[in-house]
Specification:
Elements lengths: L4 E12 L2 E12 L3 E5 L6 H9 L6 E6 L2 E2 L5 H7 L1 E4 L11 H12 L13 H13 L15 H13 L5 E5 L7 H14 L4 E5 L3 H7 L2 E6 L2 E6 L1 H6 L1 H6 L6
Parallel strand pairs: 3-8, 3-9, 6-7, 7-8
Antiparallel strand pairs: 1-2, 1-4, 4-5, 9-10
Helix pairs in contact: 3-4, 3-5
């Protein structure tokens, strides 16, 4: 694996019967890069994410992360190695406070703590959780129930939960889905900020988001890599325009 590549896939394939959802995909993502994965519905984007995160085993091919072959490892082991994922569907504990949501995630990631201590007594855990809330812009809403947050705030909280593991690679599945234009702009700012010193890969349908924040873009079509390049290169690619961008403008 090249020294600057944090993630690399080799001929990665996932079949469902005769359907190849991911078909011999070769992708290399540099350390510190913000990579977007785009493509029409059914292109294989979500399956690709599930393979990387360990939610699903590939039919064939290899996945390398930080110089280690992680092919087929279960999700909890992949997470321990430094890969975290937020989901397309908001996944928070609605009846816990904002702080409690993140604190549970931080505490769950801690390798050792006093089992008999109350969660409120775990000062380091609390400080870490409060720091994460400030980073995602929810510090002032720490005591509010997650159920009472706006949709955009819930998505930000979910990102904060993913960050609790301090991942080297953050996977974001449609982070701006269902957001207002204002929430989308705020989320773009947050993602760009989080990508400083961290590798981020996102699946996203909003081309405004993809073109404005990505360092590099991979286009999937029918399970295969159709094109890769900078936002300007993808925007100018005739094949991508015909296959995908023309239908999303």
């Amino acid at each position: 694996m090249p020294d600057d590549a944090l993630l690399r896939t080799e001929q990665l394939t996932r079949a469902f019967g005769s359907l190849l959802a991911v078909d011999r995909v070769n992708v290399s993502v540099r350390r510190g890069e913000l990579r977007s994965i785009i493509g029409p519905n059914g292109a294989g984007k979500t399956t690709f994410f599930r393979l990387i995160s360990g939610e699903m085993r590939p039919s064939s091919g290899r996945i390398w992360f930080d110089g280690r072959d992680i092919t087929g490892l279960p999700q909890h082991q992949v997470a321990r190695l430094g890969v975290a994922k937020s989901y397309q569907i908001t996944n928070v504990f609605p009846h816990l406070t904002v702080l409690e949501n993140v604190r549970v995630a931080v505490q769950g990631h801690a390798r050792a703590y006093d089992f008999w201590s109350k969660a409120s007594d775990l000062r380091d855990v609390r400080r870490r959780a409060e720091s994460l809330l400030e980073r995602i812009g929810l510090g002032r809403k720490a005591g509010r129930l997650a159920a009472h947050l706006s949709h955009g705030e819930k998505r930000h909280l979910e990102i904060g939960i993913a960050l609790a593991t301090d991942p080297a690679l953050l996977l974001l599945d449609e982070p701006t889905a269902g957001m207002s234009p204002e929430e989308t702009d705020e989320t773009m700012r947050l993602i760009r900020e989080l990508a400083t010193g961290r590798t981020v890969i996102l699946v996203e349908h909003k081309m405004k988001v993809v073109m404005r924040i990505s360092d590099h873009i991979t286009v999937l079509h029918q399970g295969q890599v159709l094109a890769e390049g900078s936002p300007d290169e993808i925007r100018a690619n005739t094949l991508v325009q015909q296959t995908y961008l023309g239908a999303t403008r």
